[in-house]
């Protein structure tokens, strides 16, 4: 049987160990929470080299940077107002949104163009401007965001930029009377930068 002094000593040593371990566990919890918010680190993104047409107005800050990786669907249709002419028409996108660390944080789809975070919040928007992004690439784009639905990362987003685009242009395959209604899928990648009021 342990003496009272021995029991007291054991409890004291255990309390000291818990006091030393608790801050470590708390710090680990904080780091884990930070890792979950890795989609919103302090941004190093600069729009200095972007064309003026797609720059976000002053008074806003970058809230989230994502890389969209996915596909765009096009459909061969008769050209409006040009009898006997046909063209590939944009149908809609479907992409996964990843943060800079490569972790999935949301998705992009449409129509209407919708950016949805994994936390359930989502935003749609209206295109304000586009600017060329090189041959074979869809243009850069500036979108004015509509009020978000749901609570989460998309709340308060005011502008969305599409930059650093790769691929995504209409297919080079024939579009004519024989292929009317045919759909083609084109792969693409683009950075989507989300801005909120500063």
Attribute tags:
198 residues; alpha+beta; eight-stranded antiparallel beta barrel; 17% helix; 42% strand
Write the layout of secondary structure elements.
Elements: H1 4-36, E1 60-78, E2 86-98, E3 104-109, E4 114-117, E5 122-131, E6 140-145, E7 157-167, E8 183-197
Antiparallel strand pairs: 1-2, 1-8, 2-3, 3-4, 4-5, 5-6, 6-7, 7-8
Question: Can you tell me about this structure?
Answer:
With 198 residues, the chain is of the alpha+beta class. Helix content is 17%, strand content 42%. The chain has an eight-stranded antiparallel barrel with strand order 1-2-3-4-5-6-7-8. The longest helix has 33 residues, at 4-36.
Gap between N and C termini: 67 Å
CA-based gyration radius: 25 Å
Note the total helix count.
1
The largest pleated sheet is described as:
8 strands, antiparallel, barrel
Share of helix, binned: 10-25%
- Strand fraction equals 35-45%
Can you write the helix and strand succession as a string?
A: HEEEEEEEE
Mean pLDDT: 84
Based on secondary structure, the structural category is alpha+beta
Strand runs, count? 8
- What shape does the CA trace take? globular
Low-confidence stretches: 6-40
Strand order of the largest sheet: 1-2-3-4-5-6-7-8
